[in-house]
Amino acid sequence: MSAPASGNLSSQANDASFPDVWEEIVWRGLVHVSTNVDELKSLLAGPPITYYCGFDPTAPSLHLGNLVQLLLMRRLQLAGHKPLGLVGGSTGLIGDPRPTAERTLNDAATVAEWVGYLQAQVSKFLGFDGDNAARLVNNLDWTAPLSAIDFLRDIGKHFRVGTMLKKDAVSARLNSDAGISYTEFSYQVLQGMDFLELYRSYDCVLQTGGSDQWGNLTSGTDLIHKAESASAHAIGTPLITNSDGTKFGKSEGNAIWLDPAMTSPYAFYQFWLNTDDSDVIERLKIFTFLTRQQIDELAVAVLAEPFKREAQKKLAWDVTSLVHGEAAAAAAIAAAGALFGQGELSALDDATLESALRELPNTTSPASTPIAQLLVDTGLSPSLGAARRSIAEGGVYVNNERVDDEAAVLEGSVLPSRMAVLRRGKKTLAGVFVE
Questions:
Q1: Which of 24, 307, 349, 375 could pair with 18 as two cysteines, CB 3.0-4.6 Å apart?
Q2: Is residue 273 part of a domain?
Q3: CATH of the domain at 418
Q4: CATH, residue 296
Q5: Which residue(s) pair with 396 in the sheet?
Q6: Domain membership flag for residue 255
Q7: 249: left (phi over 0), alpha (psi -120 to 50) or beta
Q8: Are 64 and 4 in contact (CB under 8 A)?
Q9: Reduced to 3 states, what is the DSSP secondary structure of residue 411?
C-alpha cells in the first residue's frame, strides 16, 4: 500500500478572522455534539492541551470519513494544541460494532501490517516538529501486557452494564437479528481504557471522533471521572451526508480511500469535482483551508454562475492536492482534458491514463476487434447497426481521432501503453485495454 503524498503543511493556517479555534470549527460544521461547550471553548482558548483521535486498522487504508478527523486534528494543532494519533493495534483486532452484523475478525499479522499503513497516512496530515509536535501511539502497547483479571478488576469495575446497553451501537445490534457478541460489546470498555491511559501518560484531556462513536467517546470521559476524579472532554463530528441523505464517501458500498492504490488520484479528483451545488460550500468548509471570505466568494459564484463550477474545481484541486500532492492533482486535470480531446493522451503517464479508463465503461479486446464492436462491448452503442451509423455520421473517435470507416479495426490506433480511448459524440467515453 502507498501512503498519500499530502500537501505542504507549512502553507496551512487557521482563519484569523475567527476569535478562536472553537468558533472556527463550529462555523466549519465540525462540531455535532460535545461535552460542556463553555468549558471546551475556554479549554481550547487557553494554554496548549493534549488531545487524541483513534483510527482502527480494520482496512489497509483510511477513507474520507477519517479525513474529517485528521483535518480537525490539524486545526487544533495549528491553534497550538498537541495531537496524539492513535492507531488501534488492539481495538483493530476486534472492531467497533457495526449496526447490523458482526465484523469479520482479521488475523494479528494482517492487523499489524495495516497499523503500519495507517500510521504512515496519519503522519502526512500532522506536524511532528516544534513545541506541539504530534505523537503516534498504538493501544496494543498497553493492552497486550494486561491480564484478563487485571482488566476486569481495574477497568471493568467502573462500567455499568445498564449504561453500556443504552449505547446506540449496542442497542441497534441488540434489536437486530444478529445480536451482539461479548467481543464487540466490550469495545467501548477498550476505547474508554485508551482515553484513561492517554490521560495518565500524556495528560490528554480531549478525544475527537465521529458522532456515531459518541457512546465510545463518553465511555472514556466517564472512566476518567470515575478512576481519576478528573474532567475530560469529547467532540463528535457530524456524519457527512449528501443533500439527498446518502452517506458521504460511499458509492454502492465503495468507500473513497486515501490510499492511491485503492482509489486513484484521478477518481479521487473526479469525486470532488462531481459534488452537487447544494453540498459544495459545506465541503469547502470542512475539507479545505480556505478562509471564510474565500468560501463566501465561492458561494456567490455558485449562485450567480453555477455552470462554471468554480467551487467544485477549487474543492477538487485543494483536497486532491492535500491528500495526494499537487502533481497528482495536475495529472488528474490533464487526464480529464485529454480524454475529451483538450490535450495529448500520449503526454499522460500510463498509470494516470489507466486509472482514468478504469473509471469509465471499459473492455479488454484484441487489436483486431472492429471499432463498431467495441462501441457495443463498452455500451456506447446499443447494437452494431447503431454503432456503424454513429461512425458514418462522423461521431466516433479513437484517441481523439475521428473514425471514418465503418469496418475499421482498433489496430493502428492503439497508444504505446496498449490502451485506447473510445468516444461517441462529445462526452460519451469508454476505455479499451488491448490484449
A1: 24
A2: yes
A3: 3.10.290.10
A4: 1.10.240.10
A5: 424
A6: no
A7: left
A8: no
A9: coil
Whether 50 and 169 map to the same domain: the answer is yes
Rounded to whole angstroms, the Cα distance separating 44 from 113 reads 35
Residue 379 CB-half CA count within 13 A: 8
DSSP-assigned states of every residue in 367-400: TTSBHHHHHHHTTSSSSHHHHHHHHHTT-EEETT
Would you say 265 and 332 are in contact if contact means Cβ atoms under 8 Å apart?
A: yes
Q: What pLDDT score does 6 carry?
A: 52
**Placement of cell 474543492 in the chain:** 315
CB contact set of 115 (below 8 Å; sequence gap of 6+): 57, 87, 88, 89, 92, 138, 140
Q: In the predicted model, what is the mean pLDDT of residues 226-240?
A: 95
What one-character-per-residue DSSP string does 73-91 give?
HHHHHHTT-EEEEEE-TTG
Total domains in the chain come to 3
Q: In angstroms, what CA-CA distances link 254 with 63, 68, 352?
A: 10, 18, 20
For residue 323, which of 70, 141, 42 has the smallest C-alpha distance? 70
Instruction: Write out 320-340 in H/E/C secondary structure.
Output: HHHHHCHHHHHHHHHHHHHHC
State mean pLDDT over 64-88. 97
What domain range includes position 403?
360-435
139, three cell numbers? 493501544
H or E element at residue 365: strand 362-365
CA within 13 Å, CB half, 253: 0
The amino acid present at 59, given as its one-letter code, is A
- The pTM of the full predicted model, rounded to 2 decimals, is 0.90
For residue 34, the one-letter residue type is S
Strands, E, within 161-304: which ranges?
204-210, 233-237, 250-251, 254-255
**Identity of the amino acid at 425:** G
Residue pLDDT, tens place only, 5-43:
555 798 999 999 999 999 999 999 999 999 999 999 999
Q: Which tens digit of pLDDT belongs to each residue from 422-433?
A: 999 988 999 999
Taking the C-alpha atoms of residue 335 and residue 344, their distance in angstroms, rounded to an integer, is 9
Please check whether residue 415 lies inside any domain of the structure.
yes
At residue 346, φ and ψ (nearest 5 deg) are: -65, -15
C-alpha cell at 242: 449528501
